[in-house]
Specification:
Elements (H helix, E strand, L loop, with lengths): L1 E2 L5 E3 L1 H10 L3 E5 L3 H6 L6 E2 L2 H6 L2 H5 L6 E5 L4 H12 L5 E4 L2 H7 L8
Parallel strand pairs: 2-6, 3-4, 3-5, 5-6
Antiparallel strand pairs: 1-2
């Protein structure tokens, strides 16, 4: 894990794989748009586009998961880092951005599922 200059915590694909195996409370949130999500996403991911996070009070979307470990992903990790920053400002503590996003996940040979 590394922390960016803005305080966003990023995890590598390897660290994410360990989290998947060891965290029962893990929630994966994909912040891409619906069309991107349908083309392929991490198994079990919940779709909440970045724009929705910005428009709808976070408590309405993820309030029940505030104590869970959240890993946010986007295509290349840029939008997920923005979403992590927003959630941290709202009091979420165990929230991470997948460094390199879906692109890096795929490049490491992990599968995506389609809808």
């Amino acid at each position: 894990m590394r922390e960016t200059n803005t305080g966003v915590r990023e995890i590598s694909v390897g660290e994410f794989e360990v989290m998947i195996e060891n965290h029962d409370d893990l929630l994966v949130v994909d912040v891409r748009d619906a069309a991107e999500f349908e083309r392929g996403h991490i198994p079990g991911a919940l779709l909440i586009p970045l724009g929705t996070l910005a428009e709808v009070p976070t408590e309405n979307l993820l309030g029940v998961h505030q104590k869970n470990t959240l890993v946010l992903c986007s295509q290349n990790g840029i939008r997920s880092a923005q979403a992590v920053d927003k959630l941290q400002q709202k009091g979420f503590q165990n929230v991470y951005s997948l460094a390199g996003g879906i692109s890096r996940w795929k490049s490491h040979g992990f599968a995506l599922v389609t809808k």
